Amino acid sequence: MAGAALLFPLQVAHAAEDMPSAEVMAFQREMITLDTHLDTPESVDRPGWSIMERHDMREDYTQVDLPRMKDGELDGGFWAIYTPQGPLGAEHYAKVRDFAVLRGLSIRLMIAANPEQFALALTADDAARINAEGKRIVYMSIENAYPLGEDVSMLDLFYKMGVRETGFAHFGNNQFADSSTDPDGAKWHGLSPLGEKLLAAANRLGMIIDGSHSSDEVLDQLIAKSTTPVVLSHSGCKAIFDHPRNVDDDRLRALAAKGGVIQINSYGGYLRARSPNPERAAAYRALSTEMGEEATMTAEQWEVLLARRREIDARYPDTDRATFDDFMKHLLHALDVVGPDHVGIGMDWDGGGGVVGLEDVSDLPRITAALLDAGYSKEDIAKIWGGNVLRVMRTVEASAER
User: Fold this and answer.
1) How far lies 57's CA from each of 60, 74, 125, 263, in Å?
2) Closest CA to 316 of 354, 279, 267
3) Which of 24, 111, 145, 345 gives 118 a disulfide partner, CB atoms 3.0 to 4.6 angstroms apart?
4) pTM (2 decimals)?
5) Is 274:245 a contact under the CB 8 Å cutoff?
6) 199, HSE (Cβ side, Cα atoms, 13 Å)
7) Quick one: which of 36, 237, 44 has its CA closest to 143?
8) Which segments does the entry list as coiled coil (predicted)?
9) Is 386 within 8 Å of 127 (Cβ atoms)?
10) What is the pLDDT of residues 307-348, one digit of tens each?
11) What confidence score (pLDDT) does residue 402 get?
12) Mean pLDDT confidence for 380-398
């Protein structure tokens, strides 16, 4: 999801007895475990922060690094190039385009700086090869198409950079599509004419189409018009919690009928209704206004920001956080509706994801344990953890070749 870093609560570790068994951990190691939405590139760009070092979410609020990936047996996933939605217009597009290109280069530089630990994946088959080499898998994605401006051919540049999945909108409507959460409602009632060109370009290149954050009307059109299956890289179920970011059962069935996949996210505000905490929200808004753009902060400014955030968390604790059980309700409901061939995991780590009992990437095997307890087979669980999105990717690749 990204753009929600200042909303993270102070995390609390769960009890040791909740940790998965040795058998579960062994099974987690056997399969390829992918998360389809990692906002961790924002962390990678922080001054002084290293993906190679172990961090503590209670100190710096990050949720993914190499040591914790190893703890949670996360083999990799889709690392997002995220840009917040801003004003439309040529003068704004140039700036955000440059930011997105630099964020993509940051992902590539992370790989280049640690070639024994990370590798860029460009095809579905790359996942197994990189995993066999003992490295972490780095697919690249675009969360918000806004930085493409009005030049759809810019998508070719990002494809050459390594991007293999693109979303269309984020929190607000843009030049390509309507957002599910724009306070002004629909602008295009689906895709704009430029958005239809973007869809065609992504299909031509061989990019996975991501409908997360886009409106229901956009999703309907993506499913109907895309030549390949559509994914929802980090979404939830409207039947469990009626939020605009979530998807109703009829649309889940339509998604699955075309071969698509919903990847369930762990963003607490989308999992269930939560009690308002106005003092906390006001304190974070004031802090954000005072500190300004995170992207331009020095290491010293980051330390000040983190200290202030910890102070706010201590003064106004979040006492109504969503839980692991709330997350599992969405996951199990999606499985009930469309089955294990059309469900996956996209936790929204480092972009607002994480719940009580599922605090950072090291906790992922708890999901596997819960799915085994619910009666799902190892074959089913392997599809959920990576097989399904790789199947979609193979279909996309074949379509692009044709």
Assistant:
1) 5, 17, 33, 23
2) 279
3) 111
4) 0.94
5) no
6) 25
7) 36
8) none
9) yes
10) 999 999 999 999 999 999 999 999 999 999 999 999 999 999
11) 77
12) 98
Token code pair at residue 52: 């190679």
Distance CA 330, CA 320 (A): 18
pLDDT at position 121 is 98
Using DSSP, state whether 143 is helix, strand or coil: coil
Nearest to 186 by CA among 175, 178, 194: 178
One-letter amino acid at 30 equals E
CA-closest candidate to residue 69, choices 80, 81, 54, 48: 54
Domains of the chain and any CATH numbers: 5-11+18-274+321-401 (3.20.20.140)
Rounded CA gap, 219 and 321, in Å? 29
Distance CA 25, CA 88 (A): 47
Among 220, 265, 210, CA closest to 243: 265
Give the bridge partners for 163, in sequence order: 140
What are the residues whose beta carbons fall under 8 Å from the beta carbon of 209, sequence distance 6 or more? Answer: 165, 166, 199, 202, 203, 222, 226, 228, 229, 230, 231
Give the angle 301-305-306 at the CA atoms, nearest 5°: 120
| Sequence letter at residue 385 | W
Q: Quick check: 138 and 174 in contact, CB under 8 A? A: no
CA 18 – CA 193 distance, rounded (Å): 50
pLDDT band at 1 (very low <50, low <70, confident <90, very high): low
Scored b (16 or more CB within 10 A) or e, 332-357 reads bbbbebbebebbbbbbbbbbbbbbbb
